[in-house]
Each structure stands twice: as structure tokens, then as C-alpha cells.
Amino acid sequence: MKPEIVYVETGANHDGLAQIGKCYFSKTGLTIYFNGNVYQKDGRGSAGNYYDIETGKGYWISGVKKNGTDRHKFGKGIIEIDESVIDEYLKIIGETELQKNKFKLVQLNNVPAKEKATEILNEKHETEFDSSIRFKNPSDLTKIELENLIKHYNDFDLPKMYKKNRREFIEGLKNLEIELEKRNVQKNYV
After folding, report:
1. What pLDDT digit, counting tens, does each position of 173-189 carry?
2. Which domain of life is it from (predicted)?
3. Where are the domains of the chain?
């Protein structure tokens, strides 16, 4: 893995934390290791072109610009730059020193977090919800599937749903809870 200097910015309003430092790409180029974190290419249409696999938060990650205008034209704030990349960054932008009012020197973690990525991705894979069970009749679900689906439905933010969808959602959740209660009662009689 060859390191590359990148610009990383958090948030959608262009005023978030901005950093310049070394990153490492996976073989596919879809995963980036930067400052102890792991980011994957984002096709979800969220704020950014990558997201942190641990938090799900969106980030803008790109190569540094040769003219030194890495932060968005409407963004403001100091850019943190890793001390280990200053000389290489200055060569890229064709300058001899950093602008004092634009940068803050920091020490970033330049070790690719491959183990962290593997651990998080395996954990997410193990706990990933099987969405196909939403379309089964409640009586056809196993008890574990019923419990998982009820838990999944309880995690939804109901006030953000449209009223029609909310009514259907609540009715479906009630049917699942009735089926689970019916099974619990039958189990107690046996």
C-alpha cells in the first residue's frame, strides 16, 4: 500500500474539521485508511463521498489541490496538517512555507487500521438485519425472526414518517407483537 496525501473534511456545511495527511487505499480503492479511521466509498447520497464505517458519518476525501485551495470556497476554518507531510505538501502546491493563518500543525496516526476495519465489518455482518423477513406473514416467522423484526421496527423514528406510512407501520408492528404474545401464551400452556 503506497501512502497518498489527501484532504479530509467532515460535515455537510464545509466548516467542519479539515485535515491533510497520509492515507492508504485498499487494493480495490474503495476503502481508505486515514488517521486511525476507516472510510468506504459512499454511494448513499449522503454528505460526502466517503463514510466512516464505524460511525456512518459522511466525509469529503480528495487529493490535495495544486493551488492550495482545498477547503470549499464557502467553508472557513483552520486546516490541520500532519507534520510528516508538510514538505511533500509544499512541493505539491509550489510554496516554500505554510500560511500561518490557514494551517495548524498536528500529528496524525499514519498506521493503516486494517485490523479495526476487519473487526468492524465482521461485527456489522454478524448483526446485519435480514430485511427479507419483513415480507413474510407473521405466523410464518420463527420466534427469533419475530423478535428481530419487532426490534428493527422499534428502532424507526416514527415522527419522521408520512402519516399513511406510519399507520401501516404501527399496524404491522401490532400484528407482530400479537403473534409473539400468542406464541408466548401457547408456550406457557404447554
Report:
1. 888 889 888 888 776 66
2. Bacteria
3. 4-126, 129-189
